[in-house]
Amino acid sequence: MSANVTALRRSGSAAEAIARHDLDGTIDNVARALLARQKADGHWVYELEADATIPAEYIFLNHYLDTIDDGVERKLAVYLRRIQNPDGGWPLFAKGDSNISASVKGYYALKMVGDSPDAPHMRKAREAILAMGGAAKANVFTRFALALFGQVPWRATPVTRPEAILLPLWSPFHIAKVSYWSRTVMVPLFVLAALKPKARNPRRVGIAELFVTPPDQEKNYHNNPTGSLLGDILLVLDRVIRPLEPLFPKWLENKAIQRCMDFTLERLNGEDGLGAIFPAMANSVMAMDALGYAKDDPRYTTARHSIDKLLILGEEEGYCQPCVSPVWDTGLAMHALLETGVSGDHPAMVKAVEWLKACQATEVAGDWAWQRPNLRPGGWAFQYRNDHYPDVDDTAVVAMALERAQPATTKESVHRAAEWIFGMQCKNGGWAAFDAENEHYHLNHIPFADHGALLDPPTLDVSARCLGLLAQLGYDRRFAAVERGLDYMRRVQEPDGSWFGRWGTNYIYGTWSALAAFNACGEDMNAPHIQKAVAWLKGRQRADGGWGEDCATYWDGRQAECHESTPSQTAWALLGLMAAGEIESPEVERGIAYLLSQPRDAGGKWLEERFTAVGFPRVFYLRYHGYSAYFPLWALARYRNLKRGNAKRTPFGL
Of 387, 393, 435, 450, which residue is the catalytic one? Predict the structure, then answer.
């Protein structure tokens, strides 16, 4: 009885808070602000922030090529100093633990721009790095960067041969068997590993002070990424092959380098760059430089310009984005605005629809065609253009938004998208982000794979989005693909009732995604697996009425870690609960009250410092600056619509 009374009191105070904060006024104000952020051609794009490694690597690239820009680098240095942890290291996400690789890169970049090793922040950074084992313990990609600058011997990197690109598809390794992001980073890196060029490094900056053992004397650079017997065997194989490298035929190496460059140049992607992601773009420029491409070669200049376009520079501070997210931002902004009541024929929607239709990749059979050679292209990429690498998740989100906004005028685009989504379903019933059947788990054991993000297997959140699209288009469980997808989602539910979130942090994101898809597909929301998820979400609500989840939840033993509520994660939890029919629950009311009470900036965005998204779990995290703009708005508008319509479930796929 006392628990029920407490719940009623909380519900009452939440309802009062909702009335006090003016739900309608908040929705209208934020929607106007979001509309005002739209670009003239119809799209939305927000900043996309990662950790210290990307701005540090931008500085590395300048010093590698001797294209130092002191003005830009001073601004990047201000950013690097600001995000440094109190213990001296650098984290992978805001307020996270210091990470050895990010810390080595942050320190080296600041030393390159002129920070004295004796400065207090540099001394603290050095002490933190040495306490973590020194720079020799940094990950493979960091050691490649250090090798290019002569800070470690090349034996500090795993054997990486360009001849790998010549291997047949049936071999244990083929570039088709790794993820798109690994593929585009690795192929130009094969060239660098073969040529072993040395950075210009005109200021002759080194970091010998970051090593516990002098780099030339260090014996233990490599580790077994999985701890398995196969990993031990591959470590031994790496040691056996290294002294044999000079015996590899030069003609074969040259042929392989040319094949690597053919792959790279075919996918340079104009001003959006190779793979449209910073590490691949930087490697492509360094590979062209190492091969002697002229500085005025259009391929070189365009590739270099694509990197500079990623900079976000203010008057005093700046950083470099890992990539940009206009298609993703535009699709999600449309969903939020449509939820608020903006009509499909509103000028903003008309422009957004036309912009997205023009971005659809319908001509290029990208790398996904290695596994699906007879499938027509029809997806959307994450970035402005990246036609070789359309994203299944973006495709589903965009197609749902287009169909919801203008079902008649977008019919052909949406049909092509659905056809591609059907074709990209994997054998286990789920969907991956960029490829199909990319589950060659033996590759996780190679020394190169210490970052743990070599593959692109099916994930719950992407699969849920695909099912949401198919359901919204009228495909029900009579279609085998839908039933297989639903079965996949049920199989991967966690024992506590939640679902893992691969591309958003973390179980809140995954659980919202699953519940939205189950709702769209007509699942019985009173079924035990659904109610277990609902109970999990309710149990994770915080005292302030919000929800939060730390990026550390991707590590074993830290799955429940949370330091504060965030507006975007609260919105996901609310959308999940409302998809499950919980519109009248006190937890939903308290969550809505939390959102209404939280501060926003002048542009209508909720203030949110925490990172709530993922590039690669335990390795690379993201802060989408748009998440705190459109997701809370979406949740508030959904709440209003369901309450006004006296409905318990939404008819949409998201």
Answer: 393
567 within 8 A of 546, measured Cβ to Cβ? yes
Strands 613-616 and 620-624: antiparallel
Q: Compute and round to an integer the Cα radius of gyration of the chain.
A: 25
Q: Give all domains of the chain, ordered by start, each with its CATH number.
A: 1-36+521-654 (1.50.10.20), 49-320 (1.50.10.20), 325-492 (1.50.10.20)
- Mapping DSSP to helix (H, G, I), strand (E, B) and coil, where does residue 456 land? strand
Instruction: Report whether 363 contacts 433 (CB < 8 A).
Output: no
The answer to whether 393 is a known catalytic residue is yes
- What are 304's two structure tokens? 């270099």
Give the span between the Cα atoms of 94 and 85, in whole angstroms: 9
Tell me which residue has tokens 């300048």.
62
pLDDT tens digits along 559-604: 989 999 999 999 999 999 999 999 999 999 999 999 999 999 998 9
Q: What is the pLDDT of residue 8?
A: 41
Q: Is 0.85 topped by the overall pTM?
A: yes
Q: Shortest CA distance to 529 belongs to which of 511, 504, 509, 547? A: 511
Q: 94: left (phi > 0), else alpha (psi -120 to 50), else beta?
A: beta
440-455, pLDDT tens digit by residue? 999 989 888 887 789 9
Task: Report the distance separating Cα 279 and Cα 631, nearest Å.
Answer: 29
What pLDDT score does 396 carry?
98
For 43, the enclosing helix (H) or strand (E) is none
Q: For residue 394, give both structure tokens.
A: 């973006």
| 613-616 β-sheet, strand order | 48-49, 620-624, 613-616
Distance CA 631, CA 76 (A): 29
Residue 266 has a CB neighbour count (10 Å cut-off) of 10
Return the HEC string of 297-336: CHHHHHHHHHHHCCEEECCCCEEECCCCCHHHHHHHHHHH
Residue from 166, 57, 163, 62 nearest 104 by CA:
57
How many H helices and E strands in the chain? 23, 7
* SS3 (DSSP) at 91: strand
Please, what is the Cα angle at 137 between 135 and 138, to 5 degrees?
Answer: 70
Q: How far apart are CA 305 and CA 302, in angstroms?
A: 5
Cα distances from 460 to residues 95, 196, 485, 520, in angstroms, run: 27, 40, 9, 15
* Dist. CA 469–CA 427, nearest whole Å: 19
Q: Mean pLDDT throughout 646-651?
A: 81
Q: What is the DSSP string of 342-401?
A: --TTSHHHHHHHHHHHHH-B-S---GGGGT-TTPPP-BB-SSS--TTS-BHHHHHHHHHH
Give tens-digit pLDDT for 534-562. Answer: 999 999 999 999 999 999 999 999 998 99
Determine the pLDDT at residue 452.
75
